[in-house]
Each structure stands twice: as C-alpha cells, then as structure tokens.
Write a structure and sequence with these properties.
- There is one protein chain.
- This protein is of the alpha+beta class.
- The protein has one domain (4-117): D-Maltodextrin-Binding Protein, domain 2.
- It has five helices and five strands.
- A hairpin with a 4-residue loop joins strand 3 (73-78) and strand 4.
- The radius of gyration is 14 Å and the shape is globular.
C-alpha cells in the first residue's frame, strides 16, 4: 500500500493538476494520504466520490469538507450545477450519502473564482445540491 504523498516523493512530482479519486469508499483514506501535498497546495483540483460505501471507513462528507477547508481548499458538489459546500455554506442536510462527486480547488485560486462565477471549463453550473 502507498499514499499520494509517498508517490509524489518517489516520482519527484512538483505539482499535480488534477487528482481524481475513485476508490469505492476509501476516498477519505486517500485524502488523508495526500495531506502534505494538499497542505502545500501542490494539487490544483481534487475530485472524489461520495456515497454510502463511505460507511466502510466511518467517514462523513462534513469531515472531508472540513479537512479540505482546513488545508485551504473550497469544495463543491459536482453535478449538473456546481454548488459550494465549504465553510459557511455547509448544511447538515448535505450529508445524504447519495452517489455524487465532490470537486475541491485551492481557496482564492482562479479556478475558485471561475467556479463561483460559473465561467470555468466545468461550465455555468453553480446551483443547488442533490436532494435525497
């Protein structure tokens, strides 16, 4: 077993543009293994799945969003429309364990501004989160 931080060190990667995590419920574990890279903002965009299989690692979406927020990232539900769920935008009703993707970008980055303005390559998708 390895971690993102270890792979970055072994391969001498200075920066990762997009880290896409799809580990069938172990996404929070992968995020924990990327702590140093995330803290240093060596990853521009992080996407991960959120669903019922997170029960395997006893993690919640709120815990992951706070973890990313503490590391200086802003998270959004990624669906037909992007919806900010970080910081004061968090609501306990978002903890629905419905199969969805979360995308996080460095706070204050051009990508965050584009996401908020609806002008990023992801398109004008700022809107409401998925419902139960």
């Amino acid at each position: 077993m390895t971690t993102i931080d270890r792979e970055i060190a072994v391969n001498g990667l200075p920066h990762i543009d997009v880290l896409k995590i799809d580990t069938e419920g172990y996404d929070p574990t992968v995020l924990a293994g990327a702590y140093s890279a995330l803290q240093a903002h060596r990853i521009s965009v992080v996407t991960f799945e959120y669903n019922t299989v997170w029960n395997r690692v006893n993690a919640t979406l709120q815990q992951c969003v706070r973890y990313m927020d503490d590391l200086g990232y802003v998270c959004f539900y990624d669906g037909p429309r992007l919806f900010k769920i970080s910081g004061t935008c968090w609501d306990a009703r978002y903890e629905i364990k419905k199969w969805t993707n979360i995308v996080c970008v460095a706070r204050g980055s051009v990508l965050e501004l584009e996401f908020l303005a609806g002008t990023s390559v992801f398109g004008p998708r700022l809107g409401r989160p998925p419902t139960q």
